[in-house]
Amino acid sequence: MYQKGEVMDEIVIATRASSLALWQAYHIKERIEKSFDIKVRLSKITSQGDKILDRPLALIGGKGHFTKELEDAMLEGKAHMAVHSLKDVPTYIPDRLSLVAITTREDQSDVLLSHKYATLKDLPKGAVVGTTSLRRRMQILHKRPDLNVKDLRGNVNTRLRKLKDGEYDAIILAYIGLHRLDLLRDIPFVEKLDFMIPPMGQAALGIEIVDNNPLVHKIAMSLNDATSFLCSKLERDFISKIGAGCSAPVAVNATLDNDTVFIKAMVGYADGTHILKHTLKCGIDSCTNLGFELAQEMIQKGALEILENAEKLAFKDEMPQRI
User: What is the CA angle 194-320-126, rounded to 5?
Assistant: First the structure.
């Protein structure tokens, strides 16, 4: 597609075809065209994760449910760049590709949505809460073990329709996607769940490019936010070290406060038991390995055994409260 020294008149961005992914890709397209004298075209691709709507992704196995087809398009010379929700990007990046830029991270909150109940506290015993995320399932049941958490698949609009139709008393989604698509105004009750630790990369976009293209690299780097890149790198280091996939019951979040970096993580069973939490902090000048260090400390406290057992128990009809 591109030969060194060749003048480029078009950048092709690979993107998933979902409404949220397209919002994100068009946002990046507008930013690039505003800053560079170049045309940007979107290549819309239906990913494996978008095709499988009848099973939780955690049961399918493997990684990269939402990224592989986009990466294949770049490797085949059909696109120069891919725009991902960073939380969907595995820590392994294929040869000849690089994750070079992370956009400014926005509100990372998980939100409880309901047509009946104003808050999590208001949900009665046995209320049906929808989420497919093992991370959310773990944290909500740790807080409210009396709730009935059920699987919830489909795109955002499908999930909201199921909530409105009364299939669930409440559902949990990421705030940022609802905000970007302007879907919050039709929900009677919205509560940000401040106690929940988000997943790696939530509310940031990852810009992945084909290597050895200086212009594409320059364009991608214009989208990068240094703080978001640093914090998400530490989170990705933690996930890489602990060996957790995108769907595992793992939460990790790094933040920067003045010149101090904080990183906290949580692992456990999807039923809310066997929880292990830990936090580290250090100055920004010495934080390079902080994600690895947090993972190592949690591994020493039994994190790998917890995750191994959690994988065996996830989504079983009856998850034991104690072993």
Answer: 55
β-sheet bridge partners, residue 13: 42, 81
Mind listing the pLDDT tens digit for each residue in 215-232? 999 999 999 999 999 999
Look up the pTM and report it.
0.89
Please state which of the four CATH numbers 3.10.580.10, 2.60.40.3140, 3.60.15.10, 3.30.160.40 is assigned to the domain occupying 235-313.
Answer: 3.30.160.40
Pick the range with the lowest mean pLDDT from 208-217, 222-231, 312-321: 312-321
Radius of gyration of the chain (CA): 20
pLDDT value at 185 more than 90: yes
Catalytic residues: 88
Q: Does domain 10-105+203-224 have CATH number 3.40.190.10?
A: yes
- Greatest Cα-to-Cα distance within the chain, rounded to the nearest angstrom: 66
pLDDT, tens digit, 9 for 90 and up, residues 152-161 = 988 899 999 9
The answer to whether domain 10-105+203-224 and domain 235-313 are alike in fold is: no
Strand partners, 40: 11
Q: Which residue has the tokens 């409260």?
A: 321
